[in-house]
Design the sequence.
């Protein structure tokens, strides 16, 4: 069923006000194709929304906004080393992480990331040294321009740091319906990030205890979108050349630098924002969070222009202080 003039303010974790001209939910591929046929017949533009935890709503959305509701899990194949498991797009990401440990491992570090399985490949979600791409075998969905079902291999998804083909050539042209994960059956936890290294020195590390610890750390540092509207990290960590990083580190010896494969260096955007004086500082109805400067929060009454103004102020101050251009992580919807 297609609904008209649908309120999206509760469908995005920044709680920005917006309405969709039309709204449709689908529970399988055939319902999706029916929605897409109706959209094609009426020339409606189509956008897909999951949990709304990584989008910026700049105003009312013309056309049809669709939302996957299917949430099944199916084991496709198992060997002594790996399980291949398909998870459907509408499943809550965190629920999938918890379920996944029955089949294999690796997703534990990605516990408590908000949103849906279908959105995970889009920005190749990552946390605590793991990223979804490490465990994705293939992604299936419907390409809007052809209305054909397609399966992309992991290589075709062109995953990179918080990036994929779904943010580039296939942006706004592909509805992910399911993701196949290849999960190692042996538990070999990734514990390199500081808080996990400290915890694991004395803890009994099991898949369940790791999920609990990650959840505990995240709850202690990050604002809960149910209480304080936010979209997680608002800016991507900038990746700069080794020469630029070395120059910056000479001027700012405390600057956290993380060398990347290939020679470039990742900087911590939160540190740059804090040093630029924005930690806990507000501009109108939006501010940078007092505990984590990388998270833009609102007072619940903000509109897109409040967020855009703060984004530009922070970008300008970081650029003038460090010569580094910050790019927002959430995408304009
Ligand atoms: P949405 O916000 O609904 O959509 C995001 C984008 O994906 C949009 O462009 C949308 O069109 C597209 N999309 C959504 N579903 C589909 C689909 N089925 N097919 C095709 N395109 C689709 N991200 C991280 O990487 N690591 C973190 O640790 C992390 N922590 C966070 C913590 C908090 C408190 C918050 C609020 C956000 C955090 N995020 C993090 C960002 C966000 O949770 C992820 O990017 C998540 O994958 C978004 O899922 P979603 O379902 O809410 O997507
Ligand atoms: P943190 O541990 O305070 O670290 C700050 C930044 O330094 C992180 O962004 C992280 O980069 C980087 N970093 C820290 N230790 C590193 C290491 N050993 N190797 C390489 N890079 C390292 O970060 P936090 O804010 O508490 O977040 C913890 C994790 O959750 C991070 O991985 C972060 O990406 C993720 N997270 C993401 C979002 C989002 O919306 N995207 C929101 C909240 C948390 P990376 O970000 O590249 O890991």
Sequence:
């Amino acid at each position: 069923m297609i609904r008209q003039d649908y309120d999206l303010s509760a469908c995005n974790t920044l709680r920005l006000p917006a309405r969709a001209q039309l709204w449709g939910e689908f529970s399988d591929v055939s319902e999706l194709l029916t929605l897409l046929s109706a959209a094609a017949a009426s020339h409606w533009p189509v956008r897909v929304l999951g949990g709304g935890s990584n989008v910026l709503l700049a105003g009312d959305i013309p056309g049809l906004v669709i939302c996957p509701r299917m949430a099944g899990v199916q084991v496709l194949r198992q060997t002594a080393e790996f399980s291949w498991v398909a998870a459907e797009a509408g499943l809550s990401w965190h629920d999938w992480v918890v379920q996944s440990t029955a089949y294999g491992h690796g997703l534990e570090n990605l516990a408590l990331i908000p949103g849906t399985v279908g959105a995970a490949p889009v920005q190749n979600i990552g946390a605590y040294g793991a990223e979804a791409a490490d465990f994705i075998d293939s992604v299936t969905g419907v390409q809007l321009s052809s209305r054909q079902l397609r399966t992309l291999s992991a290589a075709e998804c062109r995953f990179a740091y918080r990036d994929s083909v779904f943010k580039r050539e296939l942006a706004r042209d592909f509805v992910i319906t399911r993701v196949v994960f290849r999960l190692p059956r042996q538990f070999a936890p990734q514990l390199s990030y500081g808080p996990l290294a400290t915890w694991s020195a004395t803890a009994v590390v099991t898949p369940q205890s790791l999920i609990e610890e990650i959840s505990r750390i995240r709850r202690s540092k990050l604002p809960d979108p149910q209480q304080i509207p936010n979209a997680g990290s608002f800016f991507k960590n900038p990746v700069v050349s080794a020469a630029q990083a070395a120059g910056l580190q000479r001027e700012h010896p405390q600057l956290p630098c993380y060398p990347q494969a290939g020679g470039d260096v990742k900087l911590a955007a939160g540190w740059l924002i804090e040093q630029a004086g924005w930690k806990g500082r507000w501009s109108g109805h939006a501010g940078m969070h007092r505990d984590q400067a990388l998270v833009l929060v609102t007072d619940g009454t903000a509109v897109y222009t409040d967020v855009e103004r703060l984004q530009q102020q922070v970008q300008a101050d970081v650029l003038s202080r460090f010569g580094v251009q910050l790019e927002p992580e959430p995408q304009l919807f």
Observations:
- The pocket of NAP (ligand 2) is lined by residues 126-128, 192-194, 221-222, 232-233, 237, 256, 258, 268, 270, 292, 294, 329 (CB under 6 Å).
- The two ends are 22 Å apart (CA to CA).
- The mean pLDDT is 97.
